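#struct-help
A.M.: can someone run this one for me? Single chain, 97 residues.
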Amino acid sequence: MVVAYGAHDWVALATGEGEVRHSVRGHGGKVHCVAWLVPSQTLVSGAADGTVRIWEESKDGSAWMCTQVLRPSKGEAATASINRLAVLRGDLIAAVT
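D.P.: on it. C-alpha cells below:
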C-alpha cells in the first residue's frame, strides 16, 4: 500500500495504482505528515490541529481505527501544527511543530 496525504483533514491509503482502499479521518486540520511504524503496520499522522494520531488496522484488514491521540500541552495548543514525524527502529521518537 501507498499512503497519500495532502490538503485534507484525512489520510488515504491507496495502492501503487492509485486505488484508495481505506481512508482515515479524525484530524481537525490539514494532515501535514504521515509515517509507518514498521513492522507493526501502525500508521502515524500529524496535522495542523496540533495532534498526532496513531492508526491501527483491524485484525481482519477491513478498517483502520484511531487508537491514540497525542495533543500538545495547553500552553502550546494555540500555535501547534505538526509538520514532521521522526521514526527510528519502528518507534515514533519525535513530532515537530
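A.M.: thanks! The two ends are 27 Å apart (CA to CA).
D.P.: also worth noting: The first strand starts at residue 2 and ends at 4.
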